[in-house]
Amino acid sequence: MKQLEEKILKEGKVLSSSVLKVDSFINHQMDPQLMKKIGEEFAAIFKDMGITKVVTIESSGIGPALMTALELGVPMVFARKRKSLTLSEGLITSSVYSFTKQETNEVTISADFVNSQDKVLIIDDFLANGQAALGLVDIVEKAGAETVGIGIVIEKAFQDGGRLLRQKGLKVKSLVKIESLENGKVVFLKEEYAEVK
Ligand code: 5GP
After folding, report:
1. pLDDT single digits (tens) 13-62
2. With a 6 A CB cut-off, is 56 part of the ligand 1 pocket?
3. Does domain 2-82+90-188 have CATH number 3.40.50.2020?
4. Gyration radius from the chain CA atoms
5. Is the confidence at residue 106, as pLDDT, over 80?
6. Distance in Å, CA 33 to ligand 1 centroid
7. What is the residue with the minimal CA distance to atom 22 of ligand 1?
8. CB of 136 closer than 6 angstroms to any ligand 1 atom
9. Mind listing the pLDDT tens digit for each residue in 67-77?
10. 60 touches ligand 1 (CB under 6 Å)
11. How far is the CA of 119 from the centre of ligand 1 (A)?
12. Residues 9-40, buried b or exposed e (16+ Cβ, 10 A)?
């Protein structure tokens, strides 16, 4: 997705050879127009798959997931990382190791909102080692539902997550793939984009 690549080159900050900061348009401040476009792109990719629900993990996945759900005309559910006082029964949980925070969280979804009738599209902002996505796949499975696809805004192709998820037979589509963040420079991998647009 060209617009996203341009935004990353203009505003993204390479924090290290493995971490990209995109706080000005995805992870802290959000760019609604860009999010809308991201939602349209994901909806176009996954539109014929009978999706009944979009699932993500708080907080950074919520923006792109909500815009995708709006385009697809289905609800969006986000997994919580903290226990909620009003959410105590019928919970489905999975342990997720956070790449950026380097801690393990129990992530939770209420069984009220994902069930055996659902065909789920998982959306997240970044794909690194795949732990967040695998945790969500696990929750969807525990709910008796089916993960029909995974949409990632920014995949860091030099990390293992993409290979891990695709090896499991999951359909993973990324709007942008990064080949390298070495020497403070973002280098994009080109092959996937041709397929998207
Ligand atoms: P994974 O679970 O695939 O290892 O990491 C994905 C999660 O970690 C995403 O939900 C995202 O929030 C965070 N993350 C991973 N890599 C990056 C990165 O380079 N930059 C930012 N801002 N977040 C990242």
Report:
1. 999 999 999 999 999 999 999 999 999 999 999 999 999 999 999 999 99
2. no
3. yes
4. 16
5. yes
6. 22
7. 21
8. no
9. 999 999 999 99
10. yes
11. 24
12. eeebebeeeeebebeebbbeebbeebbebbbe
pLDDT at res. 100: 86
| One-letter identity of residue 12 | G
| Residue 59 vs residues 123, 145, 158, 192: alpha-carbon distances, Å | 12, 23, 24, 26
Q: Which pLDDT score is estimated for 196?
A: 46
| Nearest CA, atom 8, ligand 1 | 99
Mean pLDDT in the chain? Answer: 94
Nearest ligand 1 atom, CA 129: 4
What gap in Å lies between CA 68 and CA 78, rounded to an integer?
13
88 alpha carbon – ligand 1 mean position (Å): 27
Question: Is 0.90 surpassed by the pTM of this model?
Answer: yes
Reference 103, options 133, 140, 131; nearest CA is 131
Q: Is 68 within 8 Å of 39 (Cβ atoms)? A: yes
